[in-house]
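hey m, so remember when u said the tokens were messed up on ur end? i reran from scratch. heres the input so u can diff it against urs
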Amino acid sequence: MLPAPPEDWVMAVLKGYLDDSGDEFLPAMSVAGYVGNIAAWTKFEEEWQAALDLAEIPYFHMKEISDPSKPMHKFYGAKNSEASFQLLSNLVRAIGASAYPSRMSFMAVGSVVSRDALARFNRERNRGLEALPLALFTCLGLIQTHYPGKTVEVLLDGVVKAESKIATAKGYLATSARDFSKRDDVAVIPAKGELNTKTVKGLQAADFAAYEAFRKFERLEPFFKSVDLSHVQSNAEYLYQYEGWLDDTKRAFPDARKSLTALGDATNFRCPIWTYEVLCDEDETRNGIWQD
């Protein structure tokens, strides 16, 4: 039996779960997860458990696939690729079923921060932004934009010194020049004790989304490093540059992981990436102010 969530958590109009991916030695940090109403999460619990039962595993945690001591290890390596594909497909279907009939009731949010881009930005503009709070701030802004005026409580997993990181992210939110900064509709609760990835299915889905968001950046990193994007001012221009780069490097369009594409098809999934150019643009809109 799963541990009961905090008493005030039950009263939330909307619930969300976020997780992070990308250790300090990796090229990027991602934060991602899902937000939905009570009906969507109830459906999700049933569908996700069915997928776990079919795979004969007690929980899902992407990082544990490579660990021989963990139950997820039976999906590791090329010899288990078919079983791994089936597991991920079933999990994606569980997410899609939870979003039916209204994708507005269950959505994914995420953000990826390039560590090289952030280091360059901090160095050249004398700022001290942190990767995880920046990604978390972005997710909070996406949630408030998608669910204006709604009360949302988000459980955040896997973060060291979570309270400090959350406070920093809230500071980035409060000083933003965008409309969503004028509200504070999202309460972020650090997952502690028995509330963790092994016991909370919503955090397992968040782990899946955060991992896929990080892997998305891995595929895009060569593009960001080799193409000058300083003149790009719209998503259409960005896509034009990206398609041209794929053609020049003999890569197939859109060069995306099938699992990430499937997650995007299952429900709304917004996941912006913080490049150097994007950081500079944001810095200018807020006149260099990131904290009160």
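this time it looks ok to me. The CA atoms of residues 245 and 251 lie 8 Å apart. if urs says something different then somethings off w ur setup not the seq
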